[in-house]
Design a protein that fits this description.
This protein is mainly alpha-helical. It has 2 domains: 2-52; 56-305, MetI-like (MetI-like fold, Orthogonal Bundle), CATH 1.10.3720.10. It is built from 11 helices and no strands. Helix 1 crosses helix 11, helix 5 (126-140) crosses helix 6 and helix 8 (188-216) runs antiparallel to helix 11 (271-305).
Length: 308
């Protein structure tokens, strides 16, 4: 009789937990739908407001006091150049750091402190990186309020994300692959370069794109180091017609980026500038989606070429 009562009580507890699980699942679905529908509504409103402004003149014109003549030429060029510096700085350094920490670094208290700090830095507010870049790159190293300083500031911002993603991608590789490489006489570097990195490239690339997608929309670090809110000229071209055909003068040029241009237009009272901001937001969303689309394509190609 006692066993039957215990069994009945257990069934009641299980049934009560199942009801709570169902309620939690329903609450999660409702929260997800609210977030998704809110995003769709905002994006649809931005699409309706900004789509008529997306003309060739809008992409090839500088900002202006007249909203119908204003464009995003300096903003999208500045964003492209800043992201180029960010990717060139953060991606190689982040991947190399992740590989070292995961495969080469000795397991001691010093390494553990570094790992904890890298993980914590991924959650530091972006304005802190802006203040760090202002003191280090702008004042100490003398880069000034330039594209180089902005790119390095955003590189610091996404560096912890790239390092953590690289380590997680390498950890996901089966141990048997390492053991098989060592059994065939491969060195440590041959194992990393010929096996671990190719097999983990898809995961590493995902982390890189997530970091770059965050950086392209950041405003606080860029404002902190002195990005211009109104600029009617372009940086010097990276490619020239004369030898050596490559110029780095653009690294020291003043700049603006898409989020700052949008902020400038949103802060104006005229409705026409609000439409310009919506159009610029659409361009920024498309740039972000293009980056993610490129990542998906590259992941597909990499996984297709890998032979297990």
């Amino acid at each position: 009789m006692k066993d039957i009562n215990n069994l009945t009580e257990i069934r009641k507890i299980i049934g009560r937990h199942k009801r709570w699980d169902l309620m939690f699942m329903i609450a999660g679905i409702i929260a997800l739908m609210i977030a998704v529908l809110t995003f769709i509504a905002l994006f649809a409103q931005m699409l309706i407001d900004g789509m008529p402004r997306l003309t060739w003149l809008f992409f090839t014109s500088f900002p202006s006091r007249h909203p119908e003549m204003a464009g995003i030429l300096s903003a999208w060029v500045g964003t492209t150049l800043v992201m180029l510096v960010t990717a060139a700085s953060a991606v190689p350094l982040g991947i190399a750091s992740g590989v070292y920490l995961e495969e080469y670094a000795p397991k001691n208290i010093f390494t553990e402190i570094i790992e904890i700090n890298v993980t914590n830095l991924a959650g530091v507010p972006s304005i802190i990186y802006g203040l760090l870049a202002l003191g280090l790159f702008v004042y100490q190293l003398g880069f000034g309020q330039s594209i180089l300083a902005a790119g390095l500031a955003l590189a610091l911002l996404i560096l912890p994300v790239v390092i953590v993603a690289t380590r997680e991608a390498i950890r996901s590789i089966p141990v048997a692959i390492r053991e098989g490489a060592y059994a065939l006489g491969a060195t440590k570097w041959q194992t990393v370069s010929d096996h671990l990195l190719p097999y983990s490239a898809a995961g590493i690339l995902t982390g890189v794109i997530i970091g770059l997608a965050r950086a392209i929309g950041e405003t606080a670090p860029i404002i902190t180091i002195g990005a211009l809110t109104f600029i009617a000229f372009l940086p010097p071209a990276p490619v020239t017609e004369e030898f050596p055909y490559v110029s780095f003068e653009w690294l020291s040029a003043p700049f603006t980026v898409m989020p700052i241009q949008m902020f400038n237009w949103v802060s104006r009272p005229e409705e026409a500038f609000q439409l310009n901001a919506a159009a610029a937001g659409l361009v920024l969303v498309v740039m972000t989606l293009a980056m993610n689309g490129l990542a998906i394509y590259l992941r597909y190609r990499m996984r297709k070429n890998i032979k297990w």
